[in-house]
Amino acid sequence: MKNKFYILLLLFLTSCSAYKNKGVSGYYQTKGGFEWGSSISLSSDSTFSYKWQIGLFVGVTKGKWDVEYDSIILNSDLQPPKDKTPDYYLIDRGIVDSEDIIFELFLSDTTEVLIGANGLMFKNDDTIAKALSDNEGKMLFARQDFDSIKISYLGIKYVNVVDKECNYFKIIALEDSSSYMYEYFTDEKWKIHKNVLIDDTENEYYYEKKMYRTKVKNQKPARRKRK
């Protein structure tokens, strides 16, 4: 009797999951922005195909998806290889006479500055401030209570700073060869809001991206020429 109960429970949960996934499945795409050419197709069999476009770089990531409360969870078939090299080099840090938190960012060595890097300041998983590095590789945040500061740029590893004592950092960013020109997903969570998928996590390269549910336009069959 117990075995029969567990089998029925398993079938019930499976059917609920299938129904839940079927309600979210469909084709979603961006509307403008840095990722203007990106789209994702969520199939009812819990597989997805994500066509990503980052600037001039394009590619396709495939994997599995599932629903958890008000979010979808994405896991790509390919996962990033393990990399034992450091994420970045902290050359100097300290306390300076300034109302700002100051970053000096460089690439590879101290001769090439990192221009246009994205900076996000987080508190309780919320983004409370944003910044960009200028033509001298400098990035400024107003001093305030925070949990972490994450700096990202296409092709480099995350720079994650949690030091709250210092307000000056000199950093060399390192190339991220493991994930260069490819989008990996490892338990990545996108929120579901009506017919929109929202990725507002601490993701690389972007602040927030939205995917809008769209009907795939069917191509009209070619007309046959009359003889």
Q: How is the biggest beta sheet arranged?
A: 8 strands, antiparallel, barrel
Helical run tally: 1
H/E topology pattern: HEEEEEEEEEEEEEEEEE
| CATH class (first level) name of the largest domain | Mainly Beta
Structural class from helices and strands? Answer: mainly beta
- What portion of residues is helical? 10-25%
Domains, number: 2
Spatial gap, N to C terminus = 71 Å
Percent of residues in beta strands: 35-45%
Radius of gyration, in Å, reads 22 Å
What is the tally of beta strands? Answer: 17
Structure description:
- With 227 residues, the protein is mostly beta strands.
- The chain has two domains: 2-80 and 180-213, Lipocalin (Beta Barrel); 88-173, Immunoglobulins (Immunoglobulin-like).
- 10% of the residues lie in helices and 43% in strands.
- It has one helix at residues 2-24, and strands at 26-29, 39-42, 47-54, 57-68, 71-76, 88-94, 100-107, 112-113, 118-123, 126-132, 138-142, 148-152, 159-161, 168-173, 188-193, 196-199, 209-213.
- The radius of gyration is 22 Å and the shape is elongated.
- It starts with a helix and ends in a 14-residue tail after the last strand.
- The model is unreliable at 5-19 and 218-222 (pLDDT under 50).
